[in-house]
Amino acid sequence: MLDILDGARERLARASDPVPCAVATIVSAQGSVPRPVGTSMLVGADGALHGSLSGGCVEGAVLEACREALETGGSSLRSFGFSDEDAFAVGLMCGGSLEVLIQPFAAPPPGARSPLGTVDDPSPAAYVTRLPRDSDVPRTVAPEGDDADDPRAVLLAGDGAEEVRGALTMLLPPELLEAGSAQVAAMLREARSGTLRLPAGASTIDLFVESRIRPAHLVVCGANAFGQALVEAARPLGLRITLCDHRPAFTDPTAFPGAEVVRAWPHRFLAAAAERGDLDARSMVCVLTHDPKVDVPVLATALRLDIAYVGAMGSRRSDHDRRTALREAGMDEGALSRLRSPIGLDLGAGSPSEVAVAILAEILAVRAERRTVEPLRDGSGPLHARTAASR
């Protein structure tokens, strides 16, 4: 839901012509599935369609379910899985199964608060939905007014215990509030998304929790054609991108759209960013400067940090010389083993754009913990990561 939240808000907030919409969100998954839990698709009453749940194999059925929700105003859960009997039936040909929450949202009355908050709201830490059961009266998020005490979803703007407990008072009965708040808060701290099942007498109350944390940070060192191509290629990945170079003449921000441009010596910037907490275990540093007086200090700094990826561009001779200089600077072999140099996968890349693809391909492989990479046709495992049941 969070990936299309801003678009849904804007549609409902149009002053002259608000557009109702329905949102389909994957709330649980089993087996091999194309998209993870939390992925959403938006369907507007005007026919607009944004997002995808499966890459195409269940979109038609989900579209019809969203149109039905717009007509009835009721939320529902739908299941989709592999069909052995008919290869063209509604199902996931990759062999997995999905449970999808369908939610309609209508524009609020004049003066009332939107069920999705306002466009000016800060990015939420999580979107928490109480899933409908067959016995529930079909309804969507309640507007302010007589039904405000029985909403079906809330936005959390933080992961503190009091914030979570205060928000969940609108979703849970008092006897489940303490246990539910503790479990939701733990999911937010760990940036987990999934469905939380709470026993409620002879039945259960199910909460779908979708967490959002800040994007992983990609630091590109080197304001040149290769840095420019890498920034451009990385933009669709949803990363926070910083381009760092100490040369004022080369660091025109308009040349690197989508990136924060920092004019500083890269090793000094990296040390300060780590001190501020702007780097974490998911962060990546790509050194594309081709200049030993820049490369060695920034690599020495990066390799001492707990980050996911450190890579440096250059020939094999340059790599040999760099590693020698890093050893002389006190870098041990364990740290040097983390250095991806020469940077990127061996794809036969030559141009800056091709090299950017090779670098991002290596980053994806590292993030997926793939020690070797081969064509999919030569493998035998699932194409998509197998997802354990989240319910």
TrEMBL record:
<dbReference type="InterPro" id="IPR027051">
    <property type="entry name" value="XdhC_Rossmann_dom"/>
</dbReference>
<dbReference type="Pfam" id="PF02625">
    <property type="entry name" value="XdhC_CoxI"/>
</dbReference>
<dbReference type="Pfam" id="PF13478">
    <property type="entry name" value="XdhC_C"/>
</dbReference>
<dbReference type="InterPro" id="IPR052698">
    <property type="entry name" value="MoCofactor_Util/Proc"/>
</dbReference>
<protein>
    <submittedName>
        <fullName>XdhC family protein</fullName>
    </submittedName>
</protein>
<dbReference type="InterPro" id="IPR003777">
    <property type="entry name" value="XdhC_CoxI"/>
</dbReference>
<feature type="domain" description="XdhC Rossmann">
    <location>
        <begin position="218"/>
        <end position="363"/>
    </location>
</feature>
<feature type="domain" description="XdhC- CoxI">
    <location>
        <begin position="19"/>
        <end position="81"/>
    </location>
</feature>
